[in-house]
Amino acid sequence: MSIGIDKLGFYTPKNYIDIVELAEARDVEPGKFTIGIGQDKQAVPNPYEDVVTMAAEAANQILTEDNKKDIELVIVGTESSIDESKSSSTFLMDLLDLPNEVRAFEIKQACYGATAGLQMAKDFIATHPGKKALVIASDIAKYGIKTAGEVTQGAGAIAMLVSENPQIVELEDKSVYLTKNVGDFWRPTFSKTAFARGKYSNEIYMDFFKTLFDNYNQKFDQDVENIDTLLFHIPYTKMGRKALNTIESDVSEEKFNDLVERYQKSIEISRSVGNLYTGSLYLGLLSYLINGDVKDNESLMMFSYGSGAVGEIYSAKVVSGFEKAIDIEGIKNMLDSRKKISISEYETIFNTEYKNYDVVNIDTVEGEFYLSEITENERLYSRISK
Ligand code: HMG
Questions:
Q1: Same domain, yes or no, for 285 and 333?
Q2: Distance in Å, CA 37 to ligand 1 centroid
Q3: Of 183, 182, 179, nearest to 196 (Cα)?
Q4: 127 and 253 housed in the same domain
Q5: 110, 182, 286, 376: which could join 306 in a potential S-S bond, CB 3.0 to 4.6 Å?
Q6: Which of 24, 152, 239, 304 most suits a substitution to test ligand 1, by most atoms within 8 Å of the C-beta?
Q7: Of residues 46, 2, 35, 41, the one with CA closest to residue 269
Q8: Ramachandran region of residue 110, left (φ > 0), alpha (ψ -120 to 50) or beta?
């Protein structure tokens, strides 16, 4: 039975900052941010947006009433959760009008969460033929104003409908994984922003990639010259490229140049959005499918990495005709119609947070789903009918 991603939705907030303007405001040579880090723009969520509203926006793009009837599993992967107890998935029941006869929960393991959800969904479909699973990656990457990580912030959500006979990507059974107790990046429950040992996190990321790459090739007796495309978790676009460089001596020059060319296509959207945390690998997939020169039945090696740390490389295959299942125009319009805000506007938004008994003014809301109020410390959400 073939199982995989049948539909793929993406949401990113309507506001962004220009990375050159951020560099100037921080007194940094712009080349460091645009070349050294590899970013152009950074998404800035409004204070009424969070992982629930972004998850709803991304999933709403792809779900038909017929799809909803078949969903029996709803998983949100996030590390920017809004509640220590109640999962984001439960809010989606009402916001998306999903059937109640489902298993719904949240998964956390830094940027690996969505991959954990996807693999779980694959196993679920294998034992529940005819059913579908909704896996959503939703995150706000926040390090703080004037921190080293600030340039690698971002926000957005990716929604994946997982089913039999998928239209976009088939998930294969070939996979290798690795877990180690590593202090490269963490966010204690008291803190809204993450802490990172930046350079160390880069080293661990590359070490995990190379170890998994070698393990995969050995375990599945893969000739590296036969790899079509390698997709990476993208905390910032230079990171995946640095990892790719670690295999330069393993492949021919022609193969390496081809892998680099494909990698460039996979980072086009990330360059203008930033780190989606657990959605980043899947934003790379989407970007590649939209912008890449994709071959028929092309094979993909997917490198998922979540600090702390868990890594996995698994293989997948692109389904021919995949482009009909992705709203390419809608995604391009969403990106093109965003509004650039100034660095001081971004700083104000960054420091704005709704408190208990605040009610959000609906006239300020730009999306369809939003945090409408906080009452008795309970976050309540609404949908503006379009
Ligand atoms: P930094 O110390 O400010 O930057 O922090 P740097 O000094 O390392 O410089 C960055 C690059 O810019 C260097 O290139 C410089 O040479 C270059 P590299 O040596 O790396 O190839 N550079 C220039 N290039 C062109 N023109 C110039 C110029 N000046 C310098 N004028 C760092 C950078 C990424 C460490 C920081 O932003 C950070 O801490 N970010 C957050 C952590 C992070 O993203 N880690 C990535 C791996 S861990 C991961 O992926 C998991 C994660 O997504 C979380 C999760 O799993 O949940 C983060």
A1: no
A2: 6
A3: 183
A4: no
A5: 110
A6: 152
A7: 41
A8: left
Catalytic residue among 49, 106, 111, 150: 111
Instruction: Report the CATH number at residue 271.
Output: 3.40.47.10
Ligand 1 test: best mutation among 109, 185, 206, most atoms within 8 Å of CB? 185
Q: Which contiguous run of DSSP H or E holds residue 286?
A: helix 280-291
User: What DSSP letter does each residue of 329-373 carry, written as one string?
Assistant: HHHHHHHHT-EE--HHHHHHHHT----TT-B--GGG--SSEEEEE
Catalytic (active site) residue 233: yes
Residue 266's domain comprises 170-323
| Cα(173) to centroid(ligand 1), Å | 33
Distance 238 CA to ligand 1 centre (A): 8
Ligand 1 centroid, distance to 91 Cα (angstroms): 35
Rounded Cα distance, 271 and 268, in Å: 5
Q: Which residue's alpha carbon is at the smallest distance from atom 30 of ligand 1?
A: 32
Q: Which of 112, 138, 145, 202 to mutate to test the pocket of ligand 1 (most atoms within 8 A of CB)?
A: 202
Render each residue's pLDDT in the chain as its tens digit; 386 residues. 899 999 999 999 999 999 999 999 999 999 999 999 999 999 999 999 999 999 999 999 999 999 999 999 999 999 999 999 999 999 999 999 999 999 999 999 999 999 999 999 999 999 999 999 999 999 999 999 999 999 999 999 999 999 999 999 999 999 999 999 999 999 999 999 999 999 999 999 999 999 999 999 999 999 999 999 999 999 999 999 999 999 999 999 999 999 999 999 999 999 999 999 999 999 999 999 999 999 989 999 999 999 999 999 999 999 999 999 999 999 999 999 999 999 999 999 999 999 999 999 999 999 999 999 999 999 999 999 76
Domains identified in the chain, total number:
2
Does 79 participate in catalysis according to the annotation? Answer: yes
Q: Are residues 288 and 330 in the same domain?
A: no
Q: Which structure tokens are listed for 224? A: 């590296």
Q: Residues near ligand 1 with C-beta < 6 Å?
A: 29, 31-32, 35-37, 79, 110-111, 148-149, 151-152, 184-185, 196, 198-199, 201-202, 205, 233, 235-236, 239, 275, 277, 305-307
**Cβ neighbourhood burial of 50 (10 Å; 0-12, 13-18, 19+):** buried
